Amino acid sequence: MPRRSELSVLDTHRAAVRAAPAGSVAVVDETALLASSAVAAHAGEALRSGRTAWGALPGDVALLAGAGDDEAAVRRLVAGWAGEDATTLARRARTVLRDDLGAALRPEMWSLVMEHRRAGHHVVLTGHAPRPVLAPVAEDLGADELVATEVAATGEELTGEVAGPVLLDGRGERKAAALGERAVAFAYAGPGAAALLDRAEHPLVVAVAESGTPVGGPWPVLPTEPRGGALATPGDVLRTAGFYGALLGAAGTAAAVGLARRSRRQMVDLTCSVTGDVGLALAGIDVEVTGAEHLWSSRPCVFVFNHQSKIDVALLMKLLRGGFTGVAKAEAASIPLWGAMFRLAGVAFVDRGNTRQAKEALEPAVRKLRDEGWSLAIAPEGTRSPTPRLGRFKKGAFHIALQAGVPMVPIVIHDAGEVMWRGHQTLRGGTVHVDVLPPVDTSSWSVDTLAEHVEDVRDRFVAVLEGAR
Q1: Domain total for the chain?
Q2: 3-class state of residue 182 by DSSP
Q3: What is the distance, to the nearest Å, from the Cα of residue 313 to the centroid of all Cα atoms in its chain?
Q4: Strand 25-29 relative to strand 122-130: parallel, antiparallel, unpaired?
Q5: Which of 299, 404, 423, 455 has its CA 20 to 30 A from that of 103?
Q6: Under 8 Å CB-to-CB from 291, ≥6 apart: which residues?
Q7: Of all residues in the chain, what percent are helix, strand and coil, respectively (each to 5)?
């Protein structure tokens, strides 16, 4: 949970953002937005994939060991792209954001950027990392402009050279110069980017010193919690062990009850209830729910939820208790332990690359809703999103609700990515907030108007996710 001082700084700064006129320029530096190096994330991906040149190996290993991100690291990264086409690199950058860099996004900064967007401000993301590295970050952030180190290309083919200066120096002067002469109302950066901070009417340092005490120099400071690293802490391991211990214990007890009563449904429902309550409690994860009455008022129904973390499954267990099943991508069937649980619960596995197979897999789900009174839980994004930004909704859940003639209930999950980051296997303590929205009546839906209903429901999610909390 945010500290009292952090809440005070955020509240004060949000008030200043709301008071600033539309069109005001807000500069967000990567040192404020990201708790770890974007250059290091890409260097690590290249090392794991075997693309790192022998000559770059010592420097990149030192970078990953914490030696520091510098101009030489940027140039090494860009040199490794020689001969690649820009489209391939863009896809890889999106994958690195999804699997690695997304966990480094500071939620405090994300919420402030959303405040700027609501106020109609011009958001500029700055960084010394190359443009292809920061482009997917800027896209998910909704930034209006990206100022980054440029790379040279001949047509679509990258040359492996930097075009112009690397935007990295001791005071952030190169980034400040790249902004031109425009007036800057707000600037967010680490304490080393003095030139950027000095440009702004409202500067804010976003940093945590090694001692845990924020360091800001002459500027106001937003204290942020450390994001941690790739390695789990002993506490994280214990939380995770407690969670999975509860899951296995619940499954064992439920199996005995189910066998005694010859009811697979009771076995699954008991597992859901115990895992959701005891497992999350042992993991140190609290769940605060607004609109809980909507979880029960319109069953059977199709529950749709935004998907950021593997812990979302356990959250649904706690929220829905029982009487539901789900739809998952085909790969989920092979996840250790969870795959077996999904199969036991009657989850429909869908091959997203095979439209005909997907439709056939969804038919049993429609029958369970229409004929057996089960509810269905589906993530309409189809996969976990790397950032708090909501992905595009697929139509599968909406076709099911239409065919079964049941309501749709949106479940908006906040902060799940903070208790289990994407790509991580361990849990962190914290609080997850959930807004359950009123049921959406589907009785007037038709195939011809389905696209409109998809956008309407997605807009409801966006309004809650991007609203001030």
Answers
A1: 2
A2: coil
A3: 15
A4: parallel
A5: 455
A6: 435, 436, 437, 438
A7: 50, 20, 35
Q: Give residue 418's pLDDT.
A: 82
**H or E stretch including 410?**
strand 408-414
What count of other Cβ atoms lies within 10 Å of the Cβ of residue 225?
17
Per-residue pLDDT of 321-339, as tens digits, reads 888 887 766 676 666 666 6
CB within 8 Å of 435: residues ≥ 6 apart:
289, 290, 291, 411, 412, 414, 464
Tokens 């859901």 -> residue: 272
Q: What phi and psi values does residue 34 have, to the nearest 5 degrees?
A: -110, 135
pLDDT (tens digit, 9 = 90+) per residue, 255-294?
Answer: 666 666 665 666 666 777 777 788 888 888 999 999 999 9
For residues 316 and 271, is the Cβ–Cβ distance under 8 A?
Answer: no
DSSP string across 95-142: HHHHHTGGGGB-HHHHHHHHHHHHTT-EEEEEEEEEHHHHHHHHHHHT
pLDDT (0 to 100) of residue 103: 83
Last residue of a domain, one of 201, 222, 243: 222
pLDDT at 255: 63
Reading the block at residue 42, the tokens are: 């890409």
275 & 421 share domain: yes
- The token pair at 55 is 């000559």
Distance of CA 213 to the CA centre of its chain: 27
**How far is Cα 348 from Cα 374, in angstroms, rounded to an integer?**
13
Domain-terminating residue out of 191, 222, 253: 222
Query: What's the token pair of residue 98?
Result: 């999804």
- As given in the structure block, the two tokens for residue 270 are 């008991």
Give CA 433 to chain center in angstroms.
15
Among 49-58, 170-179, 320-329, the range scoring the smallest mean pLDDT is 320-329
Tokens 């011009």: give the residue.
122
Q: Which domain, by its residues, includes 108?
A: 4-222
Token pair belonging to 78: 């860009």
C-alpha span between 427 and 239 (Å, rounded): 6
Size of the chain in residues: 469
Q: What is d(CA 254, CA 395) in angstroms, rounded to the nearest whole number?
A: 34
The Cα 4–Cα 426 span in angstroms is 27
Please state whether the predicted TM-score (pTM) of the whole model is above 0.90.
no
* Residue 58, SS3 per DSSP: helix
- The answer to whether residue 228 is domain-embedded is no
| Residue tagged 């296995």 (tokens) | 248
Q: Where do we find the tokens 């101009």?
A: 71
Token pair of 153 as six digits: 């290309």
